[in-house]
Amino acid sequence: RVLRGIEVHSGLSALIAEHTTAKRPNGSTVGFDFLWSSSLTGSTVRGKPDIECVDTSQRVAMVEEAFEVTTKPMVYDGDTGGLPEIFTHTVRTLERVGVSAVIIEDKQGLKQNSLFGTDRQQSLADIEEFSRKIAAGKAAQVTEEFMIVARLEALIAGAGQAEAIRRAQAYIDA
């Protein structure tokens, strides 16, 4: 089954996503299955750069606005996740407000949006350190349903497919 998601960054955009459908050639209708809370748009609507300068509490306020008008599952862009100690609090907060999953990227240093591709230096996080962050987040979870997804940046960083696979296996093991 194909899942369809759409980015939301306000209560209004969530309301639009909640009620948007399209008609298929066979006459059936299809809507969005989940919502995406993007750090890029969360920053942009506040006139800030996408470098993790919009804090979790500001982004969670938007998530709560969205959940006022929809019950669709939400996936949250957690950027790098911050330090493991901070990530545990982020996981608990997101789970408490009803987010279904958080995605964190395995980069380090000042965040560089992946849309820049190889035009900007993309520094990968240490595998063991990032694995500890995932493990800390998993340990902080209250329910088994909440998901932590590792977004591998090895290909964007030019490190190659073998490195991406090596990282993926380590993160699965975490």
Q: Which stretches are poorly predicted, pLDDT < 50 over at least 5 residues?
A: none
* Percent range of helical residues: 25-40%
- CATH architecture descriptor text: Alpha-Beta Barrel
What is the CATH topology? TIM Barrel
Instruction: Please name the fourth-level CATH homologous superfamily.
Output: Phosphoenolpyruvate-binding domains
Q: Helix/strand/pairing class, anyone? A: alpha/beta
The global form is: globular
Q: Over all CA atoms, what is the radius of gyration?
A: 17 Å
* Percentage of residues in strands: 15-25%
Pfam family, one: PEP_mutase
GO molecular function, one term: catalytic activity
Family: Belongs to the isocitrate lyase/PEP mutase superfamily. PEP mutase family.
InterPro entries: ICL/PEPM, Pyrv/PenolPyrv_kinase-like_dom, Pyrv_kinase-like_dom_sf
What does this structure look like?
- β5 (74-77), α4 (84-97) and β6 form a beta-alpha-beta unit.
- It contains six helices and seven strands.
- α5 (127-140) runs parallel beside α6 (161-173).
- It has helices at 11-19, 39-44, 56-67, 84-97, 127-140, 161-173; strands at 5-7, 21-23, 29-31, 34-37, 74-77, 101-105, 147-151.
- The mean pLDDT is 92.
- The chain has a single domain, classed as Phosphoenolpyruvate-binding domains (TIM Barrel, Alpha-Beta Barrel).
- The protein has 174 residues and is α/β, with parallel strands linked by helices.
- Helices cover 39% and strands 16% of the residues.
Question: How would you summarize this macromolecular structure in one to three sentences?
Answer:
The protein is α/β, with parallel strands linked by helices.
